[in-house]
Amino acid sequence: MTAKVIRVVIADDEPLIRAGIRMILTSDPAIEVVAEASDGRQAVDLARAHTPDVVLLDIQMPVMDGLTALGELRRAAPEVRALVLTTFGEKENVLRALGQGSAGFLLKDSAPGELIGAVRAAAAGDAYLSPGATRHVVDQLATGRAAARSEEARRRIAELSERECGVLALLGEGLSNADAGRRLHMSEATVKTYVSRILSKLGCENRVQAALLARDAGL
Length: 219
What we know:
Layout: E1 6-11, H1 15-25, E2 31-37, H2 40-50, E3 54-58, H3 66-76, E4 81-86, H4 91-99, E5 104-107, H5 112-123, E6 128-129, H6 131-142, H7 146-157, H8 162-172, H9 177-184, H10 188-202, H11 207-217
Parallel strand pairs: 1-2, 1-3, 3-4, 4-5, 5-6
């Protein structure tokens, strides 16, 4: 049986960035770049036209920025998974993107393998939390209402079993299902079942939100 090809739309206003991303992604025979957009409006229109599996969205774009485009995509094509591309200087925007249900985020200077892994994870229905970006987001979350967030997070995870808390802690580290399974000596399928159960119990839309909740709770 032929493996399903992951169809991707790249949205970034810099042609060289788009070319670099395309070159990296198409080095994987299981990924096809079906279209490129130079602004958020084009990204939404191309997603409607091509129905890709994944859209890579830069945050800072003309006409319509990536966060606005993310909201449009969620309404117009909820089955399309959106990964947000970011830089170290856009931490607050990343938090907003996660709150709007993005499938995760990664840094523009991520390693090629990380970019491919993020697209594969998003296409598989998972979310990708870039370990490099996570550290900076966690620093942002650590300021301000940290105590209130921590208390609320601990209250929410109180209903999880010990094993579920263990899986959630590994989500907080940014581990994939496969990596978490190896750490816990469980199959990837079993971990995926645990993750689905955890998301349901916590009321999280995706594993990225659950990972941030794990960090707030101190797991």
